[in-house]
Design goal:
The protein has 195 residues and is mainly alpha-helical. It has helices at 3-29, 41-64, 76-100, 128-143, 147-176, 178-186, and strands at residues 34-37, 109-111.
């Protein structure tokens, strides 16, 4: 088996893990009534870009090899780094979902009895879910030896992050006011101690 094929298999296993982690929280979240929703066209574009970059384009590449012209030689060290990053991404992803519990939502929504979560991964950064997506995008870049499919995850993450994070923080400020402002003063957005 080639190194490139191993990288692709690791990516597929990572995407399956992502779905297995997310599914039960998505089911439970649908049972909790939404009090306020801020769904907009830009949010839909952001979610579509993230999904396209982190799942659709790389999935197309793994399934068909397209675009083969953008391939480059796979390296074992890159696959190992990618596997480690994907494991770290899934660990952060799981911890984030677990910490949010009934507060979790795929869209910008406030649920009934919504609480401000500041513990677990939220003690280090305000948006650890985005941290996990950033790590997934980095992992994808190392795992898939293709300039288009490999970098699509980071591109999707960048669009998702910059179209959504400001709106998400405004929503939290509207709901939690000074409590969220104090939390913002204590934490970084997605990279502990840096950004």
């Amino acid at each position: 088996m080639s190194v490139g094929a191993i990288g692709e298999i690791v990516w597929v296993v990572g995407i399956i893990a992502w779905y297995v982690i997310r599914y039960p929280f998505e089911r439970r979240g649908k049972r909790v009534p939404v009090v306020s929703s801020r769904r907009t066209l830009s949010e839909r574009v952001a979610l579509a870009a993230g999904f396209a970059g982190l799942a659709i384009l790389p999935g197309l590449y793994v399934a068909t090899g397209f675009p083969q012209a953008a391939d480059y030689p796979a390296r074992l060290w890159a696959v190992i780094v990618g596997a480690i990053l994907f494991c770290l991404a899934m660990w952060v992803f799981r911890r984030t979902h677990k910490q949010l519990g009934r507060n979790w939502s795929i869209t910008l929504e406030i649920r009934q009895k919504h609480e401000l979560i500041c513990a677990g991964p939220y003690a280090l950064v305000r948006h650890p879910m985005y941290t996990s997506f950033m790590l997934m995008g980095l992992a994808q870049a190392f795992l898939l030896a293709n300039w288009v499919a490999g970098l699509a995850g980071l591109a999707g993450f960048v669009v998702l992050f910059f179209l959504r994070v400001d709106k998400e923080e405004r929503m939290m400020l509207d709901v939690f006011g000074p409590e969220y402002r104090a939390y913002m003063d204590k934490t970084k957005r997605i990279i502990p101690y840096l950004y």
